[in-house]
Amino acid sequence: MRIPKTAFVFLFLHIFFLNFTFAQKLSEVDKIVAKYPKSFNTTEKLADKIENDFNSDYDRARAIYTWIALNIRYDYNAYLNPPKMRGFTYSSEAEKQRKIKQMNDDLIQKAFNSKKAVCEGFTALYQHLSTLVGIKCEIVRGDSKTSVRDIGRKTTSSNHAWNMVLIDKKWRLIDVTWGQGYYDSSKGRMVNDFAPIYFDTDPDYFFAKHFPDSGSFLGSRLSKEDFLNGPLIYNKTIEEDYKIKAPDFGILEVRRGDKIDFEIKNVSKSNQVFYLNKKNQAVKVQNPKEKRGGLEFEILIDNNVGDYITIFVDTNSIVSFKILPK
Asked: Could you list the residue range(s) of the whole structural domain that residue 195 is in?
Protein backbone atom coordinates (compact mmCIF):
# COMPACT_ATOMS: atom_id res chain seq x y z
CA MET A 1 0.00 0.00 0.00
CA ARG A 2 1.32 3.40 -0.92
CA ILE A 3 1.75 6.14 1.62
CA PRO A 4 -1.34 8.41 1.89
CA LYS A 5 -1.34 11.83 0.27
CA THR A 6 -1.37 13.44 3.70
CA ALA A 7 2.11 12.06 4.31
CA PHE A 8 3.41 13.70 1.12
CA VAL A 9 1.86 16.97 2.25
CA PHE A 10 3.72 16.52 5.53
CA LEU A 11 6.94 15.91 3.60
CA PHE A 12 6.44 19.14 1.65
CA LEU A 13 5.84 21.10 4.84
CA HIS A 14 8.85 19.43 6.46
CA ILE A 15 11.12 20.65 3.67
CA PHE A 16 9.45 24.09 3.44
CA PHE A 17 10.00 24.82 7.12
CA LEU A 18 13.61 23.60 7.42
CA ASN A 19 14.84 27.08 8.33
CA PHE A 20 12.08 27.44 10.93
CA THR A 21 13.04 24.07 12.43
CA PHE A 22 16.69 25.11 12.57
CA ALA A 23 15.72 28.23 14.51
CA GLN A 24 13.59 26.17 16.88
CA LYS A 25 16.36 23.77 17.85
CA LEU A 26 18.83 26.52 18.75
CA SER A 27 19.36 27.06 22.47
CA GLU A 28 20.04 30.51 23.87
CA VAL A 29 23.76 29.72 23.81
CA ASP A 30 23.52 28.65 20.16
CA LYS A 31 21.72 31.87 19.19
CA ILE A 32 24.53 33.96 20.65
CA VAL A 33 27.29 31.88 19.05
CA ALA A 34 25.50 31.89 15.67
CA LYS A 35 26.20 35.65 15.56
CA TYR A 36 29.94 35.19 16.14
CA PRO A 37 32.33 35.87 13.25
CA LYS A 38 33.08 32.84 11.13
CA SER A 39 36.80 33.53 11.55
CA PHE A 40 38.96 34.67 14.46
CA ASN A 41 42.62 35.66 14.27
CA THR A 42 43.59 33.07 16.88
CA THR A 43 42.00 30.28 18.89
CA GLU A 44 42.84 32.32 21.99
CA LYS A 45 40.64 35.20 20.80
CA LEU A 46 37.71 32.82 20.21
CA ALA A 47 38.24 31.25 23.64
CA ASP A 48 38.39 34.69 25.29
CA LYS A 49 35.07 35.68 23.69
CA ILE A 50 33.39 32.47 24.82
CA GLU A 51 34.80 32.87 28.33
CA ASN A 52 33.53 36.46 28.53
CA ASP A 53 30.08 35.73 27.08
CA PHE A 54 29.22 32.69 29.22
CA ASN A 55 29.57 32.11 32.95
CA SER A 56 29.21 28.33 33.35
CA ASP A 57 31.45 25.54 32.10
CA TYR A 58 28.40 23.84 30.61
CA ASP A 59 27.48 26.88 28.48
CA ARG A 60 31.11 27.38 27.46
CA ALA A 61 31.41 23.74 26.39
CA ARG A 62 28.19 24.13 24.41
CA ALA A 63 29.42 27.37 22.83
CA ILE A 64 32.62 25.66 21.64
CA TYR A 65 30.55 22.81 20.19
CA THR A 66 28.23 25.20 18.39
CA TRP A 67 30.95 27.43 16.91
CA ILE A 68 32.87 24.45 15.54
CA ALA A 69 29.73 22.73 14.22
CA LEU A 70 28.54 25.89 12.47
CA ASN A 71 31.89 26.93 11.01
CA ILE A 72 34.08 23.87 10.38
CA ARG A 73 33.05 21.62 7.52
CA TYR A 74 33.82 17.92 7.22
CA ASP A 75 36.56 17.40 4.62
CA TYR A 76 35.19 14.42 2.76
CA ASN A 77 37.95 14.55 0.14
CA ALA A 78 40.56 14.22 2.89
CA TYR A 79 38.58 11.30 4.31
CA LEU A 80 38.65 9.54 0.92
CA ASN A 81 42.30 10.45 0.29
CA PRO A 82 43.99 10.62 3.69
CA PRO A 83 47.48 12.15 3.76
CA LYS A 84 50.39 9.84 4.40
CA MET A 85 51.43 9.47 8.00
CA ARG A 86 54.31 11.75 8.89
CA GLY A 87 57.19 9.99 10.56
CA PHE A 88 59.86 11.66 12.64
CA THR A 89 63.02 10.83 14.53
CA TYR A 90 63.95 11.88 18.05
CA SER A 91 66.87 11.44 20.40
CA SER A 92 65.04 11.79 23.72
CA GLU A 93 61.58 11.44 25.24
CA ALA A 94 61.39 15.22 25.64
CA GLU A 95 62.11 15.73 21.93
CA LYS A 96 59.50 13.08 21.05
CA GLN A 97 56.84 14.84 23.08
CA ARG A 98 57.74 18.23 21.56
CA LYS A 99 57.35 16.85 18.05
CA ILE A 100 54.05 15.14 18.88
CA LYS A 101 52.77 18.41 20.35
CA GLN A 102 53.88 20.30 17.24
CA MET A 103 52.01 17.85 14.98
CA ASN A 104 48.89 18.24 17.12
CA ASP A 105 49.22 22.03 17.08
CA ASP A 106 49.54 21.93 13.28
CA LEU A 107 46.38 19.80 13.07
CA ILE A 108 44.46 22.27 15.26
CA GLN A 109 45.61 25.33 13.32
CA LYS A 110 44.85 23.69 9.98
CA ALA A 111 41.27 22.93 11.06
CA PHE A 112 40.85 26.41 12.57
CA ASN A 113 42.25 28.32 9.60
CA SER A 114 41.04 26.23 6.66
CA LYS A 115 37.59 25.63 8.19
CA LYS A 116 37.85 21.99 7.09
CA ALA A 117 38.71 18.83 9.00
CA VAL A 118 38.01 15.15 9.54
CA CYS A 119 37.18 13.81 12.99
CA GLU A 120 40.79 14.05 14.24
CA GLY A 121 40.79 17.78 13.51
CA PHE A 122 37.35 18.36 15.01
CA THR A 123 38.22 16.57 18.25
CA ALA A 124 41.66 18.15 18.58
CA LEU A 125 40.23 21.65 18.06
CA TYR A 126 37.43 20.97 20.54
CA GLN A 127 39.91 19.76 23.15
CA HIS A 128 42.20 22.73 22.55
CA LEU A 129 39.43 25.33 22.96
CA SER A 130 38.08 23.52 26.02
CA THR A 131 41.51 23.62 27.63
CA LEU A 132 41.80 27.35 26.89
CA VAL A 133 38.58 28.05 28.84
CA GLY A 134 39.62 25.77 31.69
CA ILE A 135 37.51 22.68 30.95
CA LYS A 136 39.02 19.21 31.20
CA CYS A 137 38.54 17.40 27.90
CA GLU A 138 39.60 14.03 26.52
CA ILE A 139 39.69 12.59 23.00
CA VAL A 140 38.22 9.11 22.59
CA ARG A 141 38.88 6.95 19.55
CA GLY A 142 36.75 4.04 18.45
CA ASP A 143 34.24 2.46 16.11
CA SER A 144 31.02 4.00 14.78
CA LYS A 145 27.79 2.93 13.07
CA THR A 146 26.46 5.18 10.32
CA SER A 147 24.70 2.96 7.75
CA VAL A 148 22.67 -0.24 7.50
CA ARG A 149 25.80 -2.01 6.24
CA ASP A 150 27.23 -1.60 9.73
CA ILE A 151 24.55 -3.85 11.26
CA GLY A 152 26.24 -7.16 12.02
CA ARG A 153 29.50 -6.38 10.25
CA LYS A 154 32.62 -8.26 11.32
CA THR A 155 35.30 -5.61 10.90
CA THR A 156 35.87 -3.72 14.11
CA SER A 157 38.69 -1.30 13.35
CA SER A 158 38.84 2.17 14.86
CA ASN A 159 37.28 4.63 12.40
CA HIS A 160 36.11 7.65 14.41
CA ALA A 161 36.93 9.97 17.31
CA TRP A 162 34.90 12.07 19.73
CA ASN A 163 35.30 14.01 22.99
CA MET A 164 34.38 13.81 26.65
CA VAL A 165 34.34 16.88 28.89
CA LEU A 166 34.23 16.98 32.68
CA ILE A 167 31.57 19.42 33.88
CA ASP A 168 30.12 19.56 37.40
CA LYS A 169 31.97 16.31 38.24
CA LYS A 170 30.26 14.48 35.38
CA TRP A 171 31.74 13.35 32.08
CA ARG A 172 29.66 14.48 29.09
CA LEU A 173 29.76 12.78 25.68
CA ILE A 174 30.30 15.01 22.65
CA ASP A 175 30.65 14.32 18.92
CA VAL A 176 31.13 17.68 17.24
CA THR A 177 32.02 15.99 13.92
CA TRP A 178 28.49 14.63 13.67
CA GLY A 179 27.12 17.87 15.08
CA GLN A 180 28.06 19.77 11.92
CA GLY A 181 26.20 17.61 9.41
CA TYR A 182 26.28 14.36 7.48
CA TYR A 183 27.20 12.77 4.16
CA ASP A 184 24.25 12.41 1.77
CA SER A 185 25.06 9.45 -0.48
CA SER A 186 22.18 10.30 -2.84
CA LYS A 187 23.70 13.75 -3.48
CA GLY A 188 27.32 12.64 -3.21
CA ARG A 189 28.27 15.47 -0.87
CA MET A 190 28.31 16.66 2.72
CA VAL A 191 25.17 18.38 4.00
CA ASN A 192 25.51 21.13 6.60
CA ASP A 193 22.89 20.36 9.25
CA PHE A 194 23.58 21.55 12.79
CA ALA A 195 22.68 18.73 15.20
CA PRO A 196 22.69 19.74 18.88
CA ILE A 197 21.86 16.15 19.90
CA TYR A 198 25.55 15.19 19.88
CA PHE A 199 26.35 17.54 22.74
CA ASP A 200 25.94 15.87 26.14
CA THR A 201 24.22 12.89 24.52
CA ASP A 202 22.47 10.26 26.64
CA PRO A 203 25.00 7.37 26.88
CA ASP A 204 22.36 4.80 25.85
CA TYR A 205 21.89 6.58 22.53
CA PHE A 206 25.55 7.54 22.16
CA PHE A 207 26.88 4.00 22.53
CA ALA A 208 24.31 2.64 20.11
CA LYS A 209 26.34 4.54 17.48
CA HIS A 210 29.84 4.73 19.06
CA PHE A 211 32.12 2.12 20.60
CA PRO A 212 35.36 3.21 22.32
CA ASP A 213 38.59 1.33 21.60
CA SER A 214 38.97 0.81 25.36
CA GLY A 215 35.68 -1.10 25.44
CA SER A 216 34.62 0.76 28.57
CA PHE A 217 32.94 3.94 29.75
CA LEU A 218 33.55 5.33 33.23
CA GLY A 219 34.65 1.90 34.43
CA SER A 220 31.70 -0.01 32.96
CA ARG A 221 32.40 -2.63 30.32
CA LEU A 222 30.48 -2.23 27.06
CA SER A 223 29.56 -5.09 24.73
CA LYS A 224 31.11 -4.91 21.26
CA GLU A 225 28.82 -7.72 20.12
CA ASP A 226 25.73 -5.78 21.20
CA PHE A 227 27.09 -2.70 19.45
CA LEU A 228 27.79 -4.44 16.15
CA ASN A 229 24.61 -6.52 16.13
CA GLY A 230 22.24 -3.86 17.44
CA PRO A 231 19.81 -1.93 15.23
CA LEU A 232 20.88 1.29 13.57
CA ILE A 233 19.29 4.42 15.03
CA TYR A 234 19.16 7.88 13.49
CA ASN A 235 19.42 11.50 14.59
CA LYS A 236 15.65 11.94 14.84
CA THR A 237 15.48 8.94 17.16
CA ILE A 238 17.71 10.74 19.65
CA GLU A 239 16.13 14.15 19.07
CA GLU A 240 12.58 12.89 19.76
CA ASP A 241 13.62 10.29 22.35
CA TYR A 242 12.11 7.43 20.33
CA LYS A 243 13.23 4.46 22.42
CA ILE A 244 13.32 1.21 20.43
CA LYS A 245 11.98 -1.40 22.85
CA ALA A 246 11.44 -4.26 20.37
CA PRO A 247 13.09 -5.87 18.60
CA ASP A 248 16.19 -5.25 20.71
CA PHE A 249 18.45 -7.06 18.24
CA GLY A 250 19.48 -5.58 14.88
CA ILE A 251 19.63 -8.85 12.96
CA LEU A 252 16.23 -10.49 12.43
CA GLU A 253 16.35 -14.14 11.30
CA VAL A 254 12.94 -14.82 9.80
CA ARG A 255 10.96 -16.94 7.36
CA ARG A 256 8.63 -15.52 4.76
CA GLY A 257 5.23 -15.25 6.38
CA ASP A 258 6.60 -14.47 9.84
CA LYS A 259 5.31 -11.42 11.68
CA ILE A 260 7.76 -9.26 13.62
CA ASP A 261 6.58 -7.33 16.69
CA PHE A 262 7.80 -3.74 17.05
CA GLU A 263 7.50 -1.37 20.00
CA ILE A 264 8.68 2.25 19.93
CA LYS A 265 8.25 4.62 22.86
CA ASN A 266 7.02 8.22 22.44
CA VAL A 267 5.22 7.45 19.18
CA SER A 268 1.42 7.50 18.84
CA LYS A 269 -1.32 6.78 16.30
CA SER A 270 -1.26 10.44 15.32
CA ASN A 271 2.18 9.85 13.75
CA GLN A 272 2.61 8.55 10.23
CA VAL A 273 4.49 5.25 10.75
CA PHE A 274 5.62 3.26 7.71
CA TYR A 275 8.50 1.37 6.11
CA LEU A 276 9.80 1.07 2.56
CA ASN A 277 9.58 -2.21 0.65
CA LYS A 278 12.27 -3.34 -1.78
CA LYS A 279 10.55 -1.37 -4.57
CA ASN A 280 11.07 1.74 -2.44
CA GLN A 281 7.33 2.06 -1.90
CA ALA A 282 6.01 3.26 1.43
CA VAL A 283 3.96 0.71 3.38
CA LYS A 284 1.94 2.04 6.28
CA VAL A 285 1.91 -0.16 9.40
CA GLN A 286 -1.45 -1.81 10.02
CA ASN A 287 -3.50 -1.78 13.22
CA PRO A 288 -0.95 -0.06 15.50
CA LYS A 289 -1.82 -0.06 19.21
CA GLU A 290 -0.92 2.58 21.76
CA LYS A 291 0.47 0.95 24.89
CA ARG A 292 2.74 2.02 27.76
CA GLY A 293 3.57 5.41 26.26
CA GLY A 294 4.42 4.08 22.83
CA LEU A 295 3.22 2.31 19.73
CA GLU A 296 3.13 -1.44 19.12
CA PHE A 297 2.64 -2.95 15.66
CA GLU A 298 3.46 -5.96 13.50
CA ILE A 299 5.14 -6.19 10.12
CA LEU A 300 4.59 -9.19 7.87
CA ILE A 301 7.81 -10.46 6.28
CA ASP A 302 6.70 -11.17 2.74
CA ASN A 303 8.38 -11.18 -0.67
CA ASN A 304 8.25 -7.38 -0.80
CA VAL A 305 10.56 -6.97 2.21
CA GLY A 306 14.20 -6.57 1.23
CA ASP A 307 17.51 -7.19 3.01
CA TYR A 308 16.88 -4.34 5.45
CA ILE A 309 13.80 -2.80 6.98
CA THR A 310 13.76 0.83 8.11
CA ILE A 311 10.93 2.28 10.18
CA PHE A 312 9.93 5.88 9.43
CA VAL A 313 7.97 8.24 11.67
CA ASP A 314 6.56 11.32 9.89
CA THR A 315 9.04 11.04 6.97
CA ASN A 316 12.07 10.62 9.28
CA SER A 317 14.02 7.35 9.42
CA ILE A 318 14.02 6.10 13.01
CA VAL A 319 15.54 2.62 13.12
CA SER A 320 16.86 -0.03 10.71
CA PHE A 321 17.18 -3.79 11.01
CA LYS A 322 18.94 -6.39 8.89
CA ILE A 323 16.75 -9.23 7.58
CA LEU A 324 18.27 -12.72 7.27
CA PRO A 325 16.39 -15.84 6.09
CA LYS A 326 16.23 -18.74 8.53
From this structure: 25-230
Residues with Cβ < 8 Å from 90, sequence gap 6 or more?
96, 99
Between β-strands 73-74 and 286-291, what pairing exists: parallel, antiparallel or unpaired? unpaired
Mean pLDDT across the chain, nearest whole number?
Answer: 88
Instruction: Specify whether 220 is located in the same domain as 272.
Output: no
How much is the average pLDDT of 255-259?
Answer: 94
Q: Which helix (H) or strand (E) holds 298?
A: strand 294-300
Measuring CA to CA, how many Å separate 185 from each of 190, 191, 236, 310? 9, 10, 18, 17
Asked whether the CA dihedral 51, 55, 57, 63 is positive or negative, the reply is negative
Q: What are phi and psi of 118, to 5 degrees?
A: -105, -175
pTM of the predicted model as reported, rounded to 2 decimal places: 0.87
pLDDT of 168 over the 50 cut: yes
**CA 248 to the chain's CA centroid:** 20
Same domain, yes or no: 119 and 259: no
Which domain CATH number covers 259? 2.60.40.10
Residue 97 host element (H or E): helix 93-114
Separation between Cα atoms, residue 235 and residue 26, nearest integer Å: 16
Whole-number Å distance between alpha carbons of 212 and 194: 24
Q: How far apart are CA 227 and CA 150, in angstroms?
A: 10
